[in-house]
Amino acid sequence: MKRIRSEKGLRKAIWAWRKAGEKIVFVPTMGALHEGHLTLVRLAKKHGDRVVVSIFVNPTQFAPGEDLDAYPRTEKEDARLLKAEGVDLVYIPDPQTMYNVHHATSVTVGGVAKGLETDYRPTFFDGVALVVTKLFNRVQPDMAIFGEKDYQQLATIRRLVEDLDMPTKIIGAPIARDEFGLALSSRNAYFDETGLALARKLNGIMKRCAADMRDGQHVDTATDAAKAALLAAGYSSVDYVEVRSPNSLTVLEGGYLNGPARVLVAAHCPNGKSSVRLIDNFAV
Ligand code: AMP
User: Fold this and answer.
1) 182 — alpha (psi -120 to 50), left (phi > 0) or beta?
2) How is domain 2-173 classified at the CATH fold level?
3) Which residues are catalytic?
4) Coil, strand, or helix at residue 180?
5) Residue 94 has what pLDDT?
């Protein structure tokens, strides 16, 4: 496995593979890799000839006061895991080369990127869209894999790629969960035992919410009950529990399920003296 930090080195490797007619599949990550990331890598291997994984904790998607500095960084272990999966290249750009002092361009996606996460993290998708655009320009992948764990992010990337005519096919990967249904996340590393036990209650509460809607309950009644159940379980606050149509992420007309939908949730789970913001989503 090649471990490359320079843009020049990256382009050289990509160019050689492209010249040989090989299909390149890209998996962007922020590192602190877990089994969820590795399912993306395995899917990537199925789709192409060469798998490129990037590890970059992207500063532009963190707002002031968020956990940019505290975000777990485990590069050595990440590289070991990726090598064991047969990854061809891990790209680890350094922040100075991604954003130099003259950087003055932004990328803003509307539509699906508005509401939900943006109501609580207004600049988050600007940061994601910018870094994905830059990484795609550097890697020039035929395909890229993103997890459904970050469902609105996946929808935003699909919009970005279509709107800006990027020649990369986007593939969504199912959510990897632990045996208690908690979606795997690098931020789960923050949890102590009590916090983790509370985090694992999210799945049951959301499944109940989905079942209530399937049984004909109005979405507002079901989502209000889910919010109340999260707070009663000990969550400190709930940013949203929303039901949206799976592709456009628009609000359901009429307030009842009338086909496939997605329930999306963001809630703050107390952990020691602070809390961890969990996001998750479920198909209904
Ligand atoms: P991150 O390192 O958190 O930015 O995630 C990198 C990629 O892995 C994104 O496309 C995420 O959606 C995806 N991902 C993270 N956790 C999971 C999970 N539990 N299941 C599926 N995909 C995931």
Assistant:
1) beta
2) Rossmann fold (3.40.50)
3) 37
4) coil
5) 87
Q: Which fold would CATH assign to domain 192-283?
A: Pantoate--beta-alanine Ligase; Chain: A,domain 2 (3.30.1300)
pLDDT tens string 14-68: 999 999 999 999 999 999 999 999 999 999 999 999 999 999 999 999 999 898 9
- Using one digit for the tens of pLDDT, what is the confidence trace for 107-153? 999 999 999 999 999 999 999 999 999 999 999 999 999 999 999 99
pLDDT, residue 96, reads 87
Q: DSSP letter at 251?
A: B
The answer to whether 2-173 and 192-283 have equal CATH topology is no
Pair of tokens at residue 179? 């045996």
Strand partners, 26: 52, 144
User: Which two structure tokens, joined as six digits, stand for 192?
Assistant: 């102590």
Ligand 1 centre to CA of 173 (Å) is: 9
246's CB contacts (< 8 A; 6+ apart) are 260, 261, 262, 283
- How close is the Cα of 130 to the center of ligand 1, in Å? 18
Q: Which residues line ligand 1 (CB under 6 A)?
A: 29-30, 36-37, 39-40, 146-147, 149-150, 173, 175-176, 183-186
Q: Token pair of 116, please?
A: 């939900």
Distance from the alpha carbon of residue 36 to the mean position of ligand 1, in angstroms: 6
Of 267, 237, 218, nearest in space to 116 by CA: 267
Q: Which amino acid is at 64?
A: P
Q: What phi and psi, each to the nearest 5 degrees, are found at residue 62?
A: -105, 130
The full set of domain ranges for the chain reads: 2-173, 192-283
Residue with tokens 């050689």: 16
